[in-house]
Amino acid sequence: xxxxxxxxxxxxxxxxxxxxxxxxxxxxxxxxxxxxxxxxxxxxxxxxxxxxxxxxxxxxxxxxxxxxxxxxxxxxxxxxxxxxxxxxxxxxxxxxxxxxxxxxxxxxxxxxxxxxxxxxxxxxxxxxxxxxxxxxxxxxxxxxxxxxxxxxxxxxxxxxxxxxxxxxxxxxxxxxxxxxxxxxxxxxxxxxxxxxxxxxxxxxxxxxxxxxxxxxxxxxxxxxxxxxxxxxxxxxxxxxxxxxxxxxxxxxx
Length: 253
Ligand SMILES: Nc1ncnc2c1ncn2[C@@H]1O[C@H](COP(=O)(O)OP(=O)(O)OP(=O)(O)O)[C@@H](O)[C@H]1O
Ligand SMILES: [Mg+2]
What we know:
The chain is an alpha/beta fold. The protein has a single domain (2-250), classed as 3-Layer(aba) Sandwich (Rossmann fold). 31% of the residues lie in helices and 29% in strands. Helix 6 links the parallel strand 8 (174-178) and strand 9 (207-210). It is globular. The relative contact order is 0.21.
């Protein structure tokens, strides 16, 4: 009996193929993305860097299915998001994609735990299991003692940890983060990057994050640099272990 491990290193969880995005028309036409190819593998952390206005947030928005490209494809687990109806795309986003923003975007009248439970309840989960899952996620980001706090009573770093817990509650195929440390002091930012790295190392979470900060980008496995709507270059910080997708056994001849 010989065991073969089929390796499919080019199997991306999320992939952009020749993605273009234009806004406006005529004199006001802005080509925010001009043919972007990139992808992220399971359990990999990809950082997107580039100057202001280079197209980073536009790319993340398209990767997250919030908007569709003018041309090209965005494939999430093999499905081209542009071929879905708006309702189907909303559903995929709600169930498979976790989003974290620079400005946290927590609901001020809900406690930390209620904020984290909300996406689950919106997806039809009963209150009790949603709360239990929320408590578990808050523990994961070290906030088990802040469950009943309103966002206004939490520090910026703590609010961002709640936002990460909320994004993770649905067990997303991919976590997308747009400058998640952009509004934080360096100590709180460090804490956030440590949490993100642990999610990859301990839980095989796939992450794409946009950052201006080279120290944040340094924790990623790979960094792509966007310039003027195109990927200018790529740097590999560390080699991601190829995670075998299938193990096939075959009789030897
Ligand atoms: N909804 C929109 N309508 C018109 N133009 C847009 C829109 N969104 C983005 N743009 C333009 O597309 C270009 C890329 O914007 P984007 O927000 O992706 O840049 P960015 O790299 O995220 O910048 P920053 O680092 O400042 O966040 C910019 O020129 C911007 O003005
Ligand atoms: Mg941006």
